[in-house]
Design a protein that fits this description.
This protein is mostly helical. It has 16 helices and no strands. The longest helix is centred in the last third of the chain and has 28 residues.
């Protein structure tokens, strides 16, 4: 786990230096970007080469960081790398207490766990190898990240699969520590503890820390996209980060595509109806270059990148499945299932559970809101 964690930290610090962002809010950017790179090489049959490219990029980033330390130390002021300590601490804590753990769910044995295991031993994307996997047509960005974590640490273990999910979860949730000064040690510690404890309070233990099923991480990613969009100003980092996050959603089961489209709809509505002037300012030149139009097409492409990423991820996967003659689940049956009495009763049950949770933990929720 150590090597993969160090790589992510190096990529995050270098990203923060380049975009003038705090390192803590670059964790998700680096993680999702790494997965995208592996996916890009994996669908063409070069998954192992993609891993080596990650190593090369990490080395370049390390050289870049050393250069910045040597010649531009002032830029480390806004980076605030000390806030990475609680992130690393919680990852290590969970790794220690869950050491020698085993997968316990049927779906983990027959699909999600096998996705990562087959890639570890063949260095091929799981749709390209001959492993007998249930629901092979499912997209699994988490399995690509698990491949990275296990490969960089030189062994396949189910504990590492769990640790990879922890890294994904906390790389998104710890972005809420941004804008806190490193000297506010007490507040940073309290927020970090709350981030760790929230799943316990919502009856999500052990599911969130003891499974590699993708459902909960999809919900966290959707929330992260909405949160990150509404708490950041218009700039290139915002939309590039959203692009990688949208890729992660789209590349995670069929439900992920639905959540990706929904998040894009929310963002589009807000931009077109409430942030139109910011949009115009972002895609317009402040000083119009000679022999050029008023529109900054580079910035326009940046804003469109989340939509393009969603389309590319979905289409590239569908095309790959058709080339390999891998069948997808019958989506018409899924839609028909919405109108069954069982679905209605389940919806009512879930609503009752959510209401009871809010009632049971109303004081905790109030405390969290105040903090």
């Amino acid at each position: 786990m150590w090597i993969s964690l160090i790589i992510i930290l190096i990529l995050s610090i270098a990203t923060g230096l380049y975009f003038h962002r705090e390192a803590i809010e670059c964790l998700a950017f680096s993680t999702f970007g790494l997965i995208f790179l592996l996916y890009l090489f994996g669908i063409f049959g070069f998954l192992d080469i993609g891993l080596y490219i990650v190593y090369i990029i990490t080395l370049i980033c390390l050289i870049y960081i050393i250069y910045k330390i040597s010649y531009q130390k002032k830029e480390f002021v806004y980076l605030q790398p000390l806030k990475l300590i609680p992130f690393v601490g919680i990852i290590i804590f969970l790794y220690v207490i869950l050491d020698n753990s085993r997968l316990i769910c049927y779906d983990e044995f027959t699909a999600w766990g096998l996705f990562a295991k087959s890639m570890f031993y063949t260095d091929d994307l799981y749709i390209l190898n001959q492993y007998p996997i249930v629901a092979k047509s499912y997209q699994s960005a988490t399995a690509l990240f698990q491949y990275f974590v296990t490969k960089t640490n030189g062994e396949f273990s189910e504990t590492l699969l769990l640790s990879s999910m922890h890294i994904l979860f906390f790389s998104m949730t710890f972005s809420s520590l941004k804008n806190l000064k490193s000297k506010n040690v007490f507040e940073i510690i309290i927020r970090s503890i709350l981030i760790f404890l929230i799943p316990f309070s919502l009856h999500m233990w052990p599911a969130i820390y003891y499974t590699i099923l993708v459902d909960f991480i999809l919900g966290i990613t959707f929330g992260y996209i909405i949160y990150f969009y509404f708490t950041n100003k218009f700039d290139k980092f915002l939309f590039l980060n959203l692009s990688f996050a949208i890729f992660f959603l789209t590349c995670s089961k069929g439900n992920g595509l639905v959540l990706a489209i929904l998040s894009l709809a929310v963002i589009s509505f807000d931009i077109l109806f409430f942030k139109r002037q910011e949009l115009v300012n972002f895609i317009s030149y402040k000083k119009i270059p000679k022999f050029s139009s008023k529109i900054n097409y580079k910035n326009l492409l940046v804003i469109l990148s989340p939509f393009l990423m969603c389309a590319f991820t979905y289409l590239s996967w569908i095309i790959s499945l058709r080339i390999l003659n891998i069948t997808s689940p019958n989506k018409s049956l899924l839609i028909q299932g919405i109108f069954t009495p069982e679905f209605k009763s389940n919806v009512i049950l879930y609503i009752d559970v959510v209401k009871s949770l809010f009632i049971e933990y109303r004081y905790f929720s109030l405390t969290l809101f105040v903090l």
